[in-house]
């Protein structure tokens, strides 16, 4: 349905309104298909990119250079899955733990709470069988993993969304549009922008949603329950802008909405990896296919190492082959010579990475004075990365260097030391997380363990906005598992 | 052709042969000695007993210079004493293994090295 054809001033009643047609919103609608409820999915965009709709995302950025807010997301059915890379990996158990050395860390539950949902999430992202670190059965044929001395890091595995011709990965809008149409109890409204969450006068319940289109008509949706699934940037914008009853915005009694914004820094070149005998299995550099899945290896710090050394998550990938400069050749000659190793066939590669940032309440989104075409206040992002974030990753790579040398496999050069060097190679994963964080205590979180907004009985938030800590894994698979858990919770409440 | 003529030719050939043999011997000796002749020469230093353990002193100097450029204070004599103690009853490779086992690593221009190797290279750079 096209929201532009809804009569202005009308009110649509429904059992459940899902705001946002990205991976979270679509997965939720699919998971609730067959339930005896009426559902409405409200998507701002249409089936394809539209410049005028995309401009609704424009905002301002200060601090560390970040991707422009209108470029880091896509505003049409399928949302950010329209430009994701298809990288999937479950979060590690330690990612859920409260760590004394890691301020603001800890989810309100262990990984076991979402473990049962990973298989279905994996099916939705079409990444083949859920294998990951139990991958030896399909990697042995391609060569052994890089030999590392026992210690902090190990070879871990990404799996990738299904390949269609040369196209990776699953674009949720295109892929699931027909399935959404087949759900009798679901209406999908395209071009429907939710511009306000209107609470009852005592603030304890969501009363209605204000909806606007760029064609000019405005109408209301009156749901029994609503789930905001608009991503880690737009979700706090909607909550903060909805300030008619709660003056600081919905769910923001404790000034948490928009704080703790996070993404994964993904500098392309962080280190040089030397393999003494030059032999490295192809799955480190390129995606391989076997047994119905696409996979690629990376180096990750293990949970025990992270707990013992107090380091966050990180994933180091082997990238392009490089030549050693003079001092690199000297380091190789001296080290290999001292160990009595023949390094005449050596090869060198750059290491890329994805790293986890520490939760930081000052890395935040706030409303700016300027408004968009629908009258919604635009956002301002204050982006920060601490020197400690870089130092942690450096220490992790140093441990990898130790393990390589101790195993007589290779050695490592760390490319960056100063903050300026790190910032010069910084790029971002477009993984927006943390801005409506989950915590049992309303003073420390916007939503509770069931993703319900504290203090509002019928309003939920789905997606990576709820991640209190982030891990280094790409968020899509994990947020879908979390959404499927929410679906089970809502089934109980909607009965 | 007279017998005397034959004798003259024989002496010339003998002389030519001797000259050629001497030339070959000189060339061979030069080829054999050239690496030593042209190899870098280092002034004697107080660390030569330690530096002899390095596989490639030129490379070591380069790495050591990078290590020292890292800015950490470096006590050459104190380090040499500690290295002599460490390497008295063990090989360089074993000492490096021990470093790795106990996470004693240093960096030179970003290269992650066992501490013993880094210290030896730094001494090489100090010795010049």
Q: Please give the order of strands in the largest beta sheet of chain B.
A: 1-2
Identify the quaternary structure here.
Answer: heterodimer
Strand content of chain A: 15-25%
Q: What is the string of helix and strand elements of chain B? A: HHHHHEEH
Radius of gyration of chain B: 26 Å
Biggest beta sheet summary of chain A = 7 strands, mixed
Indicate the overall shape of chain A: elongated
Could you tell me how far the N terminus lies from the C terminus of chain A, measured between alpha carbons in angstroms? 26 Å
DSSP strand content of chain B: 5-15%
The SSE string of chain A, one letter per element, is: EHEHEEHHEHEEEEHEEEHEHEEEHEHEH
Cα-atom radius of gyration of chain A: 23 Å
Structural class of chain B: mainly alpha
State the major sheet of chain B.
2 strands, antiparallel
Question: How many DSSP helices of chain B?
Answer: 6
- Counting DSSP E segments of at least 2 residues, the number of strands of chain B comes to 2
Helix content of chain B: 55-70%
Q: Which stretches of chain A are low in confidence, meaning pLDDT under 50 for 5 or more residues running?
A: none
**Please, what is the average pLDDT of chain A?**
95
Q: Summarize model confidence as the mean pLDDT of chain B.
A: 84
The stretches of 5 or more residues of chain B where confidence is low (pLDDT under 50) are 1-5
Terminal residue distance of chain B: 69 Å
């Amino acid at each position: 349905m096209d929201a532009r054809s809804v009569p202005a001033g009308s009110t649509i009643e429904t059992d459940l309104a899902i705001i946002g047609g990205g991976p979270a919103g679509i997965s939720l609608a699919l998971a609730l298909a067959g339930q005896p409820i009426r559902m409405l999915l409200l998507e701002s965009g249409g089936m394809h990119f539209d410049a005028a709709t995309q401009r609704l995302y424009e905002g301002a950025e200060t601090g560390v250079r970040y991707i422009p807010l209108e470029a880091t997301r896509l505003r049409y059915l399928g949302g950010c899955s329209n430009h994701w890379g298809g990288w999937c990996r479950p979060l590690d158990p330690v990612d859920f733990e409260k760590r004394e050395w890691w301020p603001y860390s800890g989810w309100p539950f262990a990984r076991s709470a979402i473990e049962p949902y990973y298989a279905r999430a994996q099916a939705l992202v079409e990444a083949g069988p859920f294998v990951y670190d139990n991958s030896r059965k399909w990697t042995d044929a391609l060569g052994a993993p890089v030999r590392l001395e026992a210690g902090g890091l190990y070879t871990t595995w990404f799996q990738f969304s299904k390949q269609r011709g040369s196209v990776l990965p699953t674009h949720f809008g295109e892929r699931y549009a027909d399935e959404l149409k087949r759900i009798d109890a679901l209406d999908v409204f395209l071009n429907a922008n939710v511009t306000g969450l209107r609470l009852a006068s005592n603030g304890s319940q969501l009363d209605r949603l204000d909806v606007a289109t760029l064609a000019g008509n405005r109408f209301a949706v009156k749901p029994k329950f609503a789930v905001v699934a608009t991503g880690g940037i737009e979700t706090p914008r909607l909550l903060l802008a909805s300030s008619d009853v709660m003056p600081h915005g919905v769910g923001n009694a404790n000034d948490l909405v928009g704080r703790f914004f996070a993404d994964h820094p993904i500098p392309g070149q962080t280190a040089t990896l030397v393999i003494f005998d030059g032999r490295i299995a192809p799955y480190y550099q390129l995606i391989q296919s076997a047994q119905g899945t696409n996979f690629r290896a990376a180096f990750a710090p293990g949970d025990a190492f992270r707990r013992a050394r107090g380091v966050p998550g990180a994933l180091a990938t082997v990238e392009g082959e490089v030549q050693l400069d003079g001092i690199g050749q000297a380091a190789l000659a001296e080290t290999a010579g001292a160990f009595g190793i023949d390094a005449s066939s050596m090869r060198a590669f750059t290491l890329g990475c994805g790293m986890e940032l520490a939760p930081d309440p000052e890395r935040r989104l706030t409303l700016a004075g300027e408004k968009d075409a629908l009258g919604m206040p635009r956002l301002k992002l204050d982006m920060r990365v601490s020197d400690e974030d870089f130092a942690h990753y450096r220490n992790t790579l140093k441990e990898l260097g130790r393990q390589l040398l101790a195993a007589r496999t290779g050695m490592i050069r760390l490319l960056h030391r100063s903050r300026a060097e790190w910032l010069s190679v910084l790029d971002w994963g477009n993984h927006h997380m943390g801005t409506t964080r989950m915590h049992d205590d309303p003073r420390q979180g916007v939503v509770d363990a069931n993703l319900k907004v504290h203090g509002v009985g019928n309003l939920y938030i789905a997606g990576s906005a709820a991640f209190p800590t982030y891990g280094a894994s790409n968020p899509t698979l994990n947020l879908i598992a979390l959404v499927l858990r929410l679906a089970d919770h809502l089934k109980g409440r909607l009965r | 052709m007279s017998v005397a003529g034959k004798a003259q030719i024989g002496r010339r050939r003998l002389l030519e042969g001797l000259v050629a043999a001497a030339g070959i011997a000189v060339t061979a000796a030069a080829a054999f000695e050239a690496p030593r002749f042209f190899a870098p020469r280092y002034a004697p230093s107080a660390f030569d007993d330690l530096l002899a353990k390095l596989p490639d002193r030129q490379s070591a100097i380069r790495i050591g210079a990078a290590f020292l450029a890292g800015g950490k204070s470096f006590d050459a004599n104190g380090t040499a004493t500690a290295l002599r103690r460490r390497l008295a009853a063990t090989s360089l490779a074993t000492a490096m293994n021990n470093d790795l086992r106990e996470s004693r690593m240093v960096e030179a221009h970003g290269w992650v090295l066992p501490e013993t190797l880094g210290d030896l290279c730094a001494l090489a750079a100090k010795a010049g």
